[in-house]
Amino acid sequence: MDRLIDKIIELQNPTVAGLDPKLDFVPEYIKEECFKKYGKTLEGAAAALLEFNIQLIDALCDIVPAVKPQAAYYEMYGWQGVRALSETISYAKSKGMYVITDGKRNDIGTTMEAYAKAHLGTTDIGGEEVEAFGADALTVNGYLGSDGINPLLDICKSRDKSIFALVKTSNPSSGELQDRKIDSKTVYETMGDMCESWGESTRGKYGYSAVGAVVGATYPEMLRELREKLPHTFFLVPGYGAQGGGAEDAKFAFDKNGIGAIVNSSRGIMCAWKKEQNATERDFAAAARREALRMRDDLRGVIGDMKAL
Amino acid sequence: MDRLIDKIIELQNPTVAGLDPKLDFVPEYIKEECFKKYGKTLEGAAAALLEFNIQLIDALCDIVPAVKPQAAYYEMYGWQGVRALSETISYAKSKGMYVITDGKRNDIGTTMEAYAKAHLGTTDIGGEEVEAFGADALTVNGYLGSDGINPLLDICKSRDKSIFALVKTSNPSSGELQDRKIDSKTVYETMGDMCESWGESTRGKYGYSAVGAVVGATYPEMLRELREKLPHTFFLVPGYGAQGGGAEDAKFAFDKNGIGAIVNSSRGIMCAWKKEQNATERDFAAAARREALRMRDDLRGVIGDMKAL
Q1: Cross-strand pairs, B181
Q2: Do B146 and A42 touch (CB under 8 A)?
Q3: Chain B contact for A240, CB < 8 A?
Q4: B168 to chain A: nearest residue by CA?
Q5: According to the model, what pLDDT value does residue A309 have?
Q6: CB contact under 8 A, A173 and B148
Q7: Sign of the alpha-carbon torsion through A98, A238, A295, A262
Q8: CB pairs under 8 A between A and B
Q9: Most exposed of A36, A53, A124, B171 (fewest Cβ within 10 Å)?
Q10: Which residues of chain B neighbour A79 with C-beta distances below 8 Å?
């Protein structure tokens, strides 16, 4: 997790821009251009997503440390969309951004090894080691226990990557299972404890391990409680903005040095132009940058400086 | 789930062939051909997977009702691998097979809607409805509660599709979370109850809903217990063969009419030639067929006939 934290401190900005480019969010002029070239096809849609992402990355890469493409919004456009995901990851990395693929992958050990190679590692092809998607981090679901996490830990260690396991998700029904009690602890606390223990051998210079946790800003009390109980677990915090969480909610995710978490905004940044007076869709990238700066300042207002070691 | 059960009864075979084509499993002669054409690249690997799958599907389609491609083994080969997944799904459907994409997808509501469109539904592209992957069923993880399941139910109803939610997985560490007790019930029982309730409005002519459950053959006692408690939930049963489960274990998944479940074998079928005396890799498809027939007879030996209505 050190590479991500270094970058957060360098830019004094603990936010990650979610790249969830469903076509509804992509400006008409980009879509028209791509449909003219490729038709109203999966290929045309994928070309539009990629162009949208490239312009967003260009507008954000010097002020936002990380992007989080959500796999679902690429799979929705078939393998052509998944190609756009791959190209988005490469482009964001070429611009120095840390890339968290939000795939919430989960499976038994041998299969999880394949996901680990797919998203964070390399694949053996007739003796050549080839990178498939090559992100810096991947979100995962720990429902299957440690078998499904161990293959990722090896790659986190050998290639300086990280994972974020779902602990307490931001959606309204997350409590149906996650808030239920096992002995005296909730399911999400149990999962949080697992993250601490999975990460134990991967702690970096800031004290945080390579095994982070997803904890929603929409449940600030739980965020506060988990921050206290999981001192070595870095948090990925969704739910800011469109889902209803604010800086006052997200602040509980941070430690006394102003680190310990990264807060996501997807629609808030991607669709910022829609909330600006007199903005047109052609201003989408500039508006995204303005919103990202506003969000950075909003968070810094309550957290203060992110302190280097 | 009716379409799947009809097909199982027609072929008197409750098995699904897992298509998890990591390159190690693909015969050398196929790889050599593809590497010659495309190099030792993701493209070359993907071409080899597809050729392997096509030959397996040709050898199995008149005796096995369904295939289950595991997404991880395609993502491992980049977007090119995901294209091979897409082409595998189309080919299997063209041969009349029911296709279960094993992706164990999970997310919040809006994002799950994107996964639902991606794998089971259609995507709107400038007013055109286009199928992205077009499988018949998708495996999912219910950790996020009903928000993450509801978008799938709509598509299950409108397009006659199904999902399988993880309940008790086949791996050794599955108990770390799944066997823990919430009040007097384990996490897996709680998840099983959720499946019954999610599926309630989607029951078909056999009494089974569109919301199935994944329950491993490696835990036969739990399989027996869940079969009793979840009378409307169809089971997808991994763990037969390479993972150690046998027909005597899997039989608990079935009801008195010999239906209620489909048992998966991946490596057992794909790599059957390795266990046959005097077989070479060129016999892989014929050996897969022989193993599939053996497995069918093995299961029928303990379950008996699958009875039509």
Answers
A1: B186
A2: no
A3: no
A4: A144
A5: 76
A6: yes
A7: negative
A8: 235
A9: A36
A10: 79, 82-83, 85-86
- CB atoms B132 and A190 under 8 Å: no
Among A125, A141, A197, A214, pick the best mutation site for testing chain B contact (most B Cβ within 10 A).
A125
| Chain B residue whose CA is closest to A87 | B79
Which residue, among B20, B104, B140, would best test binding to A if mutated, counting the most A CBs under 10 Å from its CB? B104
CA pair distance B253, B245, nearest whole angstrom: 12
> What is the distance between the alpha carbons of residues A123 and B45, in angstroms, rounded to a whole number?
10
Contact A130 B191 (CB under 8 A): no
* pLDDT of B243: 75
CB A220 within 8 A of CB A242: no
Q: Do B85 and A79 touch (CB under 8 A)?
A: yes
Interface of A with B in 192-221 (CB under 8 A): 194
Tokens of B12: 């008197």
A118 touches chain B (CB under 8 A): yes
DSSP one-letter string for chain A: -HHHHHHHHHHT--EEEEE---GGGS-HHHHHHHHHHH-SSHHHHHHHHHHHHHHHHHHHTTT--EEEEBTHHHHTTHHHHHHHHHHHHHHHHHTT-EEEEEEEE---HHHHHHHHHHHTSEEEETTEEEESS--SEEEE--TT-GGGTHHHHHHHHHHT-EEEEEEE-SSGGGHHHHTSEETTEEHHHHHHHHHHHHHGGG--TTS--SEEEEE-TT-HHHHHHHHHH-TT--EEE--BSTTSB-HHHHGGG--TTS-SEEEEESHHHHTGGGGSTT--GGGHHHHHHHHHHHHHHHHHHHH------
Per residue in A47-89, pLDDT (tens digit) is 999 999 999 999 999 999 999 999 999 999 999 999 999 999 9
How many residues appear in chain A? 309
* C-alpha atoms less than 13 angstroms from C-alpha of B151 in its C-beta half-sphere: 24
- Count of alpha carbons within 13 Å of A59, Cβ hemisphere only? 23
Q: What H or E segment, with its residue span, contains residue B30?
A: helix B28-38
Report the alpha-carbon distance of residue B228 to residue B157 in Å, rounded. Answer: 25
Written as six digits, the tokens of B36 are 């010659």
> What are the residue ranges in chain A where pLDDT is below 70?
none
CA torsion through residues A39, B103, A104, B214, sign: positive
Gap between the Cα atoms of B32 and B38, Å rounded: 10
Q: Is the CB of residue A71 less than 8 Å from the CB of residue A102?
A: yes
B185 among known catalytic residues: no
Could you report how far apart the first and last alpha carbons of chain A are, in Å? Answer: 14
Half-sphere exposure of residue A153: CA atoms within 13 angstroms, side-chain side: 18
Give every residue of chain B whose pLDDT is below 50, as ranges: none
CB–CB contact B126 A70 (8 Å): no
Nearest by CB to residue B114, choosing from A76, A86, A182, is: A76
Q: What is the pTM of this model?
A: 0.97
